[in-house]
Design goal:
Largest sheet: 3 strands, antiparallel
Distance between the termini: 6 Å
CATH architecture: Alpha-Beta Complex
Shape: globular
Radius of gyration: 14 Å
Bound molecules: coenzyme A
Order of helices and strands: EHHHEEHEE
Structural class: alpha+beta
CATH class: Alpha Beta
Number of helices: 4
């Protein structure tokens, strides 16, 4: 049963500007350690970071009914399985309510924007 959804859109140029201006300081505020390793494999770093940024905002929207404190972005990692499909890894203590929740994320990007959708579901 789907219990929550979230969606977010991010302008890639805004992320590119922040990366050029603040470099790794900005990136480390968005990505966790494993995502940093993934980033090094990507051709367009700003597009990748924009996608992760959108996915985390989308998840935080979906978390609304489950969490009172907003996790820091690096505490939510969006990793990739062998086929490139995103998977969510939470690096913050999960409340009992969230522990049994399945978290799904989908990301898409064009040159100008990245968009992401998050779905939370629970067994009925
Ligand atoms: C997934 C795929 C459709 C991407 O399409 P695209 O229009 O080139 O790119 P988009 O910008 O819309 O999406 C890219 C995002 O899709 C996601 N993605 C990649 N592979 C995926 C997959 N297998 N399943 C779901 N999502 C995937 C990633 O999050 C990626 O962004 P990221 O690399 O920054 O994490 C394309 O790479 C593909 O066809 N992959 C193979 C899918 C597959 O094996 N399907 C099984 C049979 S149907």
């Amino acid at each position: 049963m789907i219990t929550a959804i979230g969606v977010d859109i991010v302008e890639v140029a805004r992320i590119r500007h922040l990366m050029e201006r603040y470099g790794s300081k900005f990136v480390s505020r968005v990505l966790g350690h494993e995502e940093m390793a993934l980033l090094r494999t990507r051709r367009d770093a700003a597009q990748f970071v924009a996608g992760r940024f959108a996915a985390k905002e989308a998840l935080i929207k979906a978390f609304g009914t489950y969490l009172t404190d907003r996790p820091a972005f690096p505490q939510i990692e969006i990793l990739a399985d062998g086929a490139g499909r995103p998977s969510v890894a939470c690096r913050f203590p999960l409340s009992p309510a969230l522990a049994s929740v399945q978290m799904l994320v989908s990301i898409s990007h064009e040159k100008s924007h990245a968009v992401a959708m998050a779905i939370l579901s629970e067994e009925e």
